[in-house]
Amino acid sequence: MILAAGAAADPVAARSQMGFSLGWHIILACFGVGLPGLVLFTEWRGLRTGDPVLRLLARRWAKALGLLFAVGAVSGTILSIEMGVLWSGLMSRWGQVIGLPFAIEGIAFFVEAIFLGIYLYGWDRLPPRVHLLSGIPIFVAGVASAFFVVTANAWMNTPAGYTLHDGRLTGVDPWAAMFNPSTGPETVHMILAALMVTGFGTASVYAVAMLRGRRDRYHRLGMLIPLTAGAILAPLQIVAGDFAARLVADHQPAKLAAMEGLSRTTAGAPESLGGWYSGGELHYALRIPNGLSLLARLNPHATITGLNSVPPADRPPLVNVVHLSFDLMVAIGFGLLALGLWLAWAWWRHRDTPRTAWFLRAVAVSGVAAVAAMEAGWVTTEVGRQPWIVYRVLRVADAVNPQPGIQYGYWAVVAIYAVLTVVTIAVLRHMTKSVAIPAAPQDADAESYTVT
Amino acid sequence: MNLANAAAAVLWIGVTAYALFAGADFGAGFWDLVAGGARRGAPQRALIEHSIGPVWEANHVWLIFVLVMMWTGFPPLFGAVASTLWIPLTCAAFGVIARGSAFAFRKSVTAVWQRRIFGAAFAFSSVITPFFLGTVAGAVAAGRVPAAVGAGNAITSWWNPVSVMTGVLCVVVCAYLAAVYLTGDARRAGDQDLIARFRWRALAAGAVAGVAAAAGIAVLHGDAPGLAHGLANRGLPLVIVSAVAGLAALVLLWRGWFVAARGAAAAAVTAVLWAWALAQYPFLLRGRLTIAAAAAQHSVLMATLICLAAGAVLLIPSLTWLYVLFQRSGPPPARGVPDRGR
To answer: What is the pTM of this model?
Structure first.
């Protein structure tokens, strides 16, 4: 058999598979966290005002939520299986340390799935107020799920809550493991990111429709509600991101050095934008003198640890990937902030969205940009932690399943997810296109229009 | 009962719930597959979609629960099983993703050819997923999984008589459970033709499941004598319960007592699972890894069990509401009613 003849332990294939399936799932997970909030807010306003446009929007978004949640539920299950299939060395030993947040997340996910079933299928069976209330657990549980899952990733960055004796795990404090130093900043950063991806992502769909000439109230509100949510969160996210980066400076100096392409420990380190890292130096970067010291330590002359502080075997090998991903994320973050300010300014001046088509174009791009920023952030933190799977505790190479043939699983995952991506987008487009929007939609339209 | 045994029991409750609830959803996919052409099979497919639509995601969560409980409560077991059995687990994972997404896609499209493609993907993956999960169970039952990470044979650990037989048995049992449940749903929908169809299918699947289980005992004697011995001794009372409940379910179906038949069918499956657990107690991996040796630290088990108990307080009423809401009422009220004052 080919499988039996393959090389042992293949960390590259396993990492690619995990990165690919996680990077794919997280987009759906973002909508799973954010869309319930959007749907509930819109349904609530629709109930209060009786506005049929709002009610139709809520109903349409709920349909999309049903689809995205279903695909997200199964793509998330794949990750649970991959935790064992790919990272048996990690889980067989450390599974119990990070198990508690996953167990609680399991409960949260259960609550989410149960109430989503009630909410989506009970729209015509429950009284409106009860129906609205039945949606609240979906949003709360979605945010809670994101929190608990990210605590496990935070633990991989700053492991805590265990004692080792002669290399044996002798004591575990699962709560201390869950509330490790990275937990606060990382969870806040990710939950905000999920809400922003939903906000800008949903708004961009309607911006595209408006660019194609459909400027009715349905499309305007469909863009404005999620865009406003994204615009409110964008400045908060920059504060949260700064908080997270400062934490990396304290706890994972090699990761910060890779994020900044800083090869040597430097006092009064500059902030480097862009450039290319090769031969142990960052070339062609735009440098802001003392910027990094100021940002990381609030002191322009502070000393920042460089990559040379750790032995070569312990340095992240792909400095360019880490540095450029980080810069991309920050750049998009400020771009989204600017977009929000543009909206706020126009609203303040004439109670309306900016009238130029360039605004719609910017909103149309913002959805993809928000996803790109979120993915770039994950690349930064995950690639920046290399060669460790658990920082300074366990190497990736020691955690991977030693069975031969793992790489075939990777190629299968790529093929399956490629098909799934195409089909998901096609079906979502079908859901928006198959039915013309009525000029004055009534609630009966939302029911009788075949959107299922 | 010590904490490790309690955690093992909770894990096994999760396995049982997954088998009873998600198993029926998989089985519904099997009946979807064999329902016939687009026109002839339409009423059956509509009933299947109506029955599992609101609940399958909640039922599916039991799998995640089982995986998480394994790595939290018994990490060496999870590492050993997942690494050696990575091929069937990866195949089951692909089946899970194909099934869930195809089901969701099918509901979202209207053209017949699109519904046909997604329906086929849903139905086909509903058959292969329980098969591969069954081979995993069979590999553990047959003692083919060493306790160390990745130490077993990637192929023969799950491609052997006991594992394959368990995989096939899983598919048959899922189909049986689904047919029994769907017979009841058909009665609620008031469709005599559907009642007759699913009732016959339940009887046939029940008979096949009984024959397959009996044949399985013969295979076990040859391939996994240790387990066969355990089933014939400590597990025997539950094996008998299972056989009696299985026969009772067939009689109840025959007499048209569909609600009682559901209970009996579920009891038969539950008894088999717990007979297996008793037969290999105190081992998780027969002769290699005991519950006590694999258990996580006391602090972890305590925290996890307390959280799960607290979670159950939230979940049990919620799940009850979900099932009652969709079991009590038929299809949604007539469409096109003017705005009902909302």
So the answer is: 0.89
The ipTM of this complex is 0.86
DSSP H stretches of helix in A87-173: 88-94, 99-121, 128-157
Mutate to test the interface with A, among B26, B86, B99 (most CBs of A within 10 A): B86
Q: State the total domains in chain B.
A: 1
User: Beta partners for A271?
Assistant: A288
B332, part of any domain: no
- A89–B79 CB contact, under 8 Å: yes
Domain extent for B132:
3-327
Q: A403, A428, A435: which to substitute to probe chain B, counting the most B Cβ within 10 Å? A: A403
d(CA B165, CA B135): 8
Q: Are A53 and A43 in contact (CB under 8 A)?
A: no
Q: Is residue B337 part of a domain?
A: no
pLDDT in tens, A403-431: 888 888 888 889 988 988 888 888 888 87
Domain membership flag for residue B340: no
Which residues of chain B make contact with A168, given a CB cutoff of 8 A?
Answer: none
Q: Are A172 and B335 in contact (CB < 8 Å)? A: no
Contacts of B150 in chain A (CB under 8 A): 88, 401-403
Which residue from A minimizes the CA distance to B74?
A: A96
Report the alpha-carbon distance of residue A29 to residue B77 in Å, rounded: 29
Please spell the DSSP secondary structure of A246-288, one letter per residue: HHHHHH-HHHHHHHHT--S-EETPPEEES-EEETTEEES-EEE
Is A293 within the bounds of a domain?
yes
